[in-house]
Fold each of these.
Amino acid sequence: MSKLWGGRFTKKTDQLVEEYTASILFDKELAEEDIQGSIAHVMMLGKQGILPLDDVEKIKDGLHRVLQRIHRNDIEFSISDEDIHMNIEKTLIDDVGPVGGKLHTGRSRNDQVATDMHLWLRKRVVEFVDLLHKLQAALVEQAKANLDTILPGYTHLQRAQPILFAHHMMAYVSMFGRDIERLQDSYKRINMLPLGAGALAGTTFPIDRHYVASQLKFDRVYENSLDAVSDRDFILEFLSHASIIMMHLSRISEELIMWSSTEFHFVELDDAFCTGSSIMPQKKNPDVPELVRGKTGRVYGNLIGLLTVLKSLPLAYNKDMQEDKEGMFDTVRTLQGALQLFAPMIATMKVNKDRMRQAVNQDFSNATDIADFLVGKGLPFRQAHEVIGKTVLYCIQQGKYLLDLTLDEFKQFSKLFDDRIYSVLQPENVVNARNVYGGTATAQVSDAIGRAEAELEKT
Ligand code: ARG
């Protein structure tokens, strides 16, 4: 079978070369966008008088038929036609005859493939914003149900200060909020049209790029033809944002895994999101968060992979750039999988309020607050810190917690103590004392929930 570009060649392509250079096995993912772009292109060729209108109609109808056949899975793509662009063009020519060969007028695969990728990624970004909103909504629901759940907050994975579980959930709502902002901001750089750049220098035909842009609902047209066919920043940006989202997901995954352990037993993931062991009958493993944590690696890998492909690459198109696709598809699939599972997993997670509370009762995470109490009595914070450090050490030696000490015992460490400390030390009071914007006090966290709900309602 002859190649679309066969004219200059006297020999058949080596079979292994064909297999090595072909991208059809993965870029068939772009079929719909390829046809969408071709329809806009051929309509423009008609409007500009570059092609007669009846040729345009034949080509358009043919492209619609090709699309239907693709949807019906009725086309066998072939490696000898290399990629999705030439497979579709070949199928079109088989369908409509030689007039199909006019479609590629004033266009190159270089601006065509870039256009396809912009169209494809544009859709995905919209879907990801939606998935992230759903995850935020699930986290907000858990926060609302746990405005009275107190657990130890950690630094260095050591008990630090008690916090509301709701506050912890809302921390992730904020992170995913920034992820959404980043994706939305990148949209303006994805929503740009490369088509019309030709192979690299523009085209001799009197095309109308702005018309094509408006047909495809792109906000902007790439200004420079060399840049248009060479740019993959928009993919890099997406891969970076996807990496940051996975990093956030891997952190909450790690916490869910820890919290599900017998040692913590703070939460229980629903059976539907866990698996068992083939040998140990008692096991219920948190496979979903574990895999999300693990798959973060491949998402980072795809980012580093494409950064490395593009590094030092001279302008304009180079075949290296065909390597932009598999990583992007893989990242999209990986992120979709993680986000689709995460929202229902969070929504169905059981929160063990009593166990968290028990943990708070058996620690020194209220120590900062009696230091602050002494400061309130006029003691410089540094000295108060020292006094409480000694008090905690005494407790540890005695096998007691701060609330177990008598006032006399307290007074051995400072005369400034009085019986109000017992109230200061109560976990509820410790939490509610942090009544600053962004703090863990119930009033602040309810406000944060209210703000998040208002944002989610707008979507
Ligand atoms: N399959 C190619 C890619 O994905 C399409 C562009 C090919 N252009 C070329 N001049 N060989 O990058």
Amino acid sequence: MTNLRLNAVEKALARTTKSVDVPSNKISDYFGDDCFDLKKLKAAVTPAVFEQVQASIEKGAKIDPETADAVAAAVKEWAVAKGVTHCTHWFQPLTGSSAEKHDAFFDSRKGVEIFKGSTLIQQEPDASSFPNGGIRSTNLARGYTGWDPSSPFFIVESTLCIPTIFVSFTGDTLDYKMPLLKAQEAVSKVAVEVCKYFDEEVTAVSASLGCEQEYFLVDKAFYAARPDLYITGRTLFGAAPAKGQQLDDHYFGSIAPRVYAFMKDFEIACLKLGIPVQTRHNEVAPGQFEVAPLFEEINVAVDHNLLMMDVMQKVADKHDLKVLLHEKPFKGLNGSGKHNNWSLITDNGRNLFDPEGSLYFLTFLVNTVKAVHKYGDIIRGSIASAGNDHRLGANEAPPAIMSVFLGSTLTEFLDKVEATGELVYEDGEDKFMQLGIEKIPSLKLDNTDRNRTSPFAFTGNKFELRAVGSTQNSGTPMAILNLVVAEQLTQFKAEVDALIAGGKDKEEAIREVLITYIKESKAIRFEGDGYSQEWVEEAERRGLSNVKDTPRALKFLVTEQAMEVFAKHGVFSHKEIEARYEVWTEIYKTKLDIEARTMESIALTKIIPAASRYMGKLVETAAVAKSIGIESRGLVKTIEEVAYQIDVLKEGVASMATDLDRIEEMGDVVEQAIAFADTVKGVHFEKVRGAVDALEALVDDQEWPLPTYSEMLFLK
Ligand code: ADP
Ligand code: MG
């Protein structure tokens, strides 16, 4: 009889390292070869056309049909020369992955390749089956995709991809890109106004993002032998291996040859697409890795991250590997996140979080801290997902409690402001020095002495939101971060202006408001160990929320306060956020439902049969032994243990099925989702998994059907 698992082990052991085609030793020779960016556009069209596209990116100016035709012609010519035959609007529906529908350039009636400006600008994909939370009834299922000129075109295989937004017939947003663009606009607008207190020259501010992406790799054959992995993205079962991450010997360790070949190959593909991948290393858990590109304008960075996740999977396949992007593929090992490094940069090149020129810097720093203090719950809601529930608050990733880490230098400074009620600094270069704070050196020190337990950390000249899940589209958390900072800066500006109108000196007014903010937002600042029980208790005393499951965290997005802020800045109308709330709650529920049914099926069709076969053999052996006068207590004890776990498993699966039926009957999706969190995941998953994992430790290795943790983690 064949055992998929044992076959998989054989296959994994027989793998060889694939060679990688390196186009050139100089990355600059091929960087961006598969992407059509503004530089290429500029070279291919008239100055008037280029200026209009640029005005559209910078000021939202409308692109006329002739300009669109000119852009379409230029990009088509470039693409066709590279062997491209089709084009697609590439968009980001609420399913979580990107979507595409390919159309051929070739027009059979005219016998030539055609790509019109109108096709570039707008498409109407038959989008009735994308989640929309009731925004579109199926009979009015029209959805439109519209070109986003700020993100470059790119080629995947023989298809030209056009980054687009996705909206409904009525103009409601149906994707992850549109809210981000709106939030980016909101923060930019008010940040410019605030910058003008310090620098009249600033006319635009853009948000930057660099996503550090964590992932696991397993051999393709193991993946294929684990339905839980290929159906749900995570292992629903698996006894802890003798060796996990206790020795910490994987982090930054040397990279295995097959993995290294994959990384090189995948990086080349990214670089060709214009994705500036820069760092790679082993992560904490065995089999876990990280890749990070250089930061880019936030909208492009989000697109690139999404595209990169796609490219990774395709390239991994060539190396007989599978990428696991799930937040928690393996119980007991570190999960994967996506650290979102974020900052605001002015059009004259100033990073607003660069600690130079103290009041200018402090204004943005303090307002960001205040924004997280006031709207931390909304940020928490924006990172909620079934996968991320396994990380947040699970003592290995940022806790589910929002807090801000600033490092000792800034903390001491803010504490002093708070205690004295004075924000003293003197004009001149070395303001921080005069406060007893060594400006650069100590900040650099903080930079290396990272607090890895904080969900939102200041890291020298940027903030790092670490709580985002590894599979997540960063669009939502980044939209919400920009939005709450925009709202906070708006309030700040109003307060400062009121003081100025009342006769206060500008700097005096700014200082006064900042002092109030520093005092008011003290509770959100935390420098200690975010994984500790003390922090949970301390956070509760401080009145900070600690919501550990998605259905409850998502509620933060539809409070009156949240909806008001969303609507005020045009990021989500009430209808849009309510729709999203419904979609995300439904996705959560559905994912858990799929996990439950996968568990049930594996338990009944793989685990119980394997355990019973083994038990049968033991019973036979015991009977034979007895017939020749040998009575083994050990043998009988093993039979009893196996029989007991089979009972527990069978009963666990049955009672889970009863609850699934009961939940199915509930009318309300929120109620269902909560029942899934509390009962299905909270009670049944533990019990069913417990029995299976116990059997894994008892049953003959030759009989065990699922690749084990050790095999998946160490055989590569
Ligand atoms: P680590 O946090 O692991 O020390 P780095 O400091 O190199 O790593 O940065 C991680 C990510 O942060 C990279 O993607 C990098 O490009 C990005 N980053 C650096 N500076 C900024 C910035 N000002 N704004 C946004 N992202 C940034
Ligand atoms: Mg980092």
Amino acid sequence: MTGTIDNQAGVHQQGSGVEAGDAIPVNPQDPEEKVNILLVDDRPDKLMAVETIIAELGQNVVKARSGQEALRHLLQTDFAVILLDVNMPGLDGFETAALIRQRKKSEHTPIIFLTAISDTETHVSRGYSLGAVDYILAPVLPDVLRTKVSVFVELHKKNQQIRSLNEQLQKRITQLTETNQALEAFTYSIAHDLRAPLRAMLGFSRALLEDYGAKLDASGQEFANRIVSSAKRMDDLIQDLLSYSRLSREQIKLGPVKLEAALDDVLKQCELQVREKEAEIRVETLLFEVWAHKGVLVQMLVNLLSNSLKFVATGVKPSVRIWAEEGDGWVRLSIRDNGIGIASEHHQRIFRVFERLHSTEQYPGTGIGLANVSKAAERMGGRVGVESQPDQGSRFWVELPKAPRL
Ligand code: ADP
């Protein structure tokens, strides 16, 4: 048992060693970085007065003497907030705001209108319809102006941070996906290439036993037999790993699959094992259609059923019950056995590659079957789970989306 679990640890270490994302550190925007504020007023004295008030905020202030000049600035620069005088010759504040909103780059830039109290009645509703976020009434109260502007400065900084974090996360995801694909392709080709020399080993050691067995003494024969069985086991492991890798990489096309038909195939594939073990299999209520890939579903159920037939105490005849029930949008298929059961602390890890709870002498296997089951469920948009206690048998379940009614 420990041997295989040690293997698992090795695989994990390898996996975590290839943290591709490490190459890109996540650096949120510097909160001290200055943002831009645009002041628009035709009167230089008013521009200067407002500038003096907000200078304390320590940000970049850009001044424009007309709506046109403001629009030119907006073409080149990103602003946290625009302070816009309503009464200006030429383009007035509202006309300028309408043009600002038409541009993609500034369609959401907050605008605070500066207007005289006497004009508020008529201005307020028009301003809000143009997407104004606030009004500052003249005469301007410095504290009020500073507080209002600082809220938008903070908001802008937070938005910039979120945007830059998002970009970096996106880069990480792309890099991780690429690394994952490369790693999977690498595993696949390694596993594939390993099989050729292994087959030669297996073939020659078998030939050695057949052709020269008589010349070997008992120990010699024992050694040759061990080479055969080790090579065979390694071949099983590689084959199972290849099927796991294939299941992870290959496109699978989903469609409606009748559970009953899938289970017929499963029972045919397990026929020999059922007969050898003199197992009793009861199949109930399977009149459901799931959204799946038939071949993948059959393979996954073969894995579960053969485990139910395999993991029984010595001398016990396997008795397995298979049934399905439906919920809102999903169908759950359960396979209940009278086997040796599994302690709850192992319920999660048995679904990982190479996790086994017994030695191969006790129960043969590679420890990849349930990892394949879990991967298959994931690829088909479903879930798997187990309910079990030692000596109480196990119930493995698979939940899959129900096929839509046409
Ligand atoms: P393998 O069958 O090759 O050992 P699996 O990935 O299918 O690998 O299963 C992992 C481990 O989970 C098994 O080694 C066994 O310890 C446990 N297990 C799986 N199915 C059952 C079951 N029906 N009853 C008891 N134990 C089980």
Amino acid sequence: MSPRPHYLVLTYPLQGHIAPALRLARRLLAAAPDALVTFSTTEAAHRRMFPAGPDAPDGDDDGRLELLPFSDGTETGYVPSSDHAAFNAYIAAFHAAGARSVGELVDALAARGRPVTRVVYTMLLPWAADVARDRGVPSALYWIQPAAVLAVYYHYFHGHAGVVADHRHDPSFLVRLPGLPPLAVRDFPSFITDSTDPSDFFHSIYTTTRDLFDALDRETPKATIIVNTCKELESSTLAALGAYEVLPIGPVLPAGDEAGLFKQDDAKYIEWLDAKPASSVVYVSFGSLARMAKEQLDELLKGLEGSGRPYLCVVRKDNKAELAEAEARIKNGMVVEWCDQVRVLSHAAVGCFVTHCGWNSAMEAVACGVPMVCVPQMSDQRMNAWLVECEWRVGARAEVGSDGVLRAAEVRRRVEEVMQGDARGAAADWKREVVEALGKGGSSDHNLRAFMECITSDVQ
Ligand code: UDP
């Protein structure tokens, strides 16, 4: 008798990786009643998500979902600091200990009669495919950024690094890559424009990404990659990604409450939204990592107050000190430390999202039909903003000054542009497309099932 399908879903311990991994886990369980899933991230992140205690979950009641951490070789996980050497050391420990520990986990699951039949891993785990292959288990990369970024990285690591390197200080230079429209250097993922020097803080992310593409090249006949996007959103790019078996299965969304690294604010922000007119509120969040300097936070709040519109703004606990005196000047807004973002974006009162354009945030906004003001900073965010503004026309990118600060006047200008312009209509149209893609028989639903049935040539 062949074993039940059992997916080991592995993820790097960042909120923006954990959320789509958990959502995928739920989708896999929902798509096949006999499927098993083991969700695994590092021990420190696991403890934060599922604090110990009598009620600590170890999986779903019916036993189909198990939550089992792997070791990154540290007690505490990465402790954010400006120490470049400490970050490099963490990444090195993560790779060495992670590969060993995940190997032991796969072996232990097999030993207790719950063998893994497919390893699914998010980016930054370039060793996962080798660990799986060594044990005869197939694997798939779960790409949690746009297909456009996958394509850019693919071409960069397959013969096009030189042109990017030659022009990386020229933001408006247009790079032509196969299957993609001409793209300005300023829209490229920052890890290939800013982090190729060993002295850059994120250099180890650049080398990890390079190692990931090397690992994909070792897969035969072709690496399988499931992508958190949908065919309708990125059709031409997806069509040009022939080097891999690529299945767009997103955008993944939460199914009810979701464990994460951050504690929800107790403030009654949903009740606050309930009292506001339809499409009147500006929602503002820069995700789980970006920290705003005091000057930036002051300018942002000044711009939001100046817009005269009600606003709900997330300022994380670790960024609260920078809010200090500015909080006293807040009249039209509400500030929370962390909210249920998808619930907020789904609320009828929300009319626009000022976002750093992390891929999860962008996908959640598209799925909820909310137009965006994009303030991208690093990684894939600039390319995500390009998709939002130029490809889907569901938002506008705000310009920052030469000092890197987004000024109050620009906040006001872009919020008005997005609240009153065509972006809202386009966002409503895209929402419909996404609902269809995710629904029964839609492209993403079809592709997820094709992935689960291993008929990857049947991609839509
Ligand atoms: N998020 C949330 N509550 C908040 C702020 C953010 O739930 O108050 C979630 C958001 O819904 C998204 C994730 O945090 O799923 C942020 O991921 P993204 O890729 O947008 O950005 P990152 O944090 O990785 O920079």
